[in-house]
Amino acid sequence: MAHEPHSPLTELSLEAIIALLHSRGLRVTKGRQKILETLLQATEPLSLDEIQHRSVVDGVTPDYATVFRVMAMLEELHVAQRVHLNRSCSYFELLDPQQHYDHLICTQCGRVTLMVDSCPVEKVEQAIGKRYGFTDVRHSLEFFGKCPECR
């Protein structure tokens, strides 16, 4: 079930994100497109440094400020979200309007496992919204423990 009802996307694809950016009057440079491709290929949330180093275009790495601005723009558009993995920096992931991700983080090796089968607090989230009169309620949930390899 989608937990991002206010997401402007109907599907998570490069074409859909580019169309959204164009509809908002935003340019899509080679650098922005490569950052989007990097995020779409990611299998777990990425830090700004990881996004920067994976987004090389024609041998040129985008500067950190550019990556920061692109991620802030994507957050504002509700296309990406910041994920706090109990680490010193923030991580980011794209928001698939058809899916919701909660995370399991290994306290020993740092491995991030996405929980995509079911959300343990979905009904609680709906009840909280109803009780307090909020709409478009969402959450980011992280569980911490040792992964099977670190046990």
Your description of this structure?
19% of the residues are buried. This protein starts with 13 loop residues before the first helix and ends in a 6-residue tail after the last strand. The protein is built from five helices and six strands. Helix 3 (48-54) crosses helix 4 (64-76). A three-stranded antiparallel sheet has the order 1-3-2. A three-stranded mixed sheet has the order 5-4-6, with no helix packed on it. The model is unreliable at 1-5 (pLDDT under 50). The protein is an alpha+beta fold and 151 residues long.
Structural class: alpha+beta
How many DSSP helices? Answer: 5
- Any idea what the radius of gyration is? 16 Å
For the record, what CATH class applies?
Mainly Alpha
Name the CATH architecture: Orthogonal Bundle
User: What would CATH call the homologous superfamily?
Assistant: Winged helix-like DNA-binding domain superfamily/Winged helix DNA-binding domain
Strand order of the largest sheet: 1-3-2
Low-pLDDT runs of 5+ residues are 1-5
The count of DSSP E runs of length 2 or more, i.e. the number of strands, is 6
Please indicate the percent range of residues in DSSP E strands (runs of 2 or more): 15-25%
| Average of pLDDT | 86
Distance between the termini: 32 Å
Order of helices and strands: HHEHHEEEEHE
Shape: globular
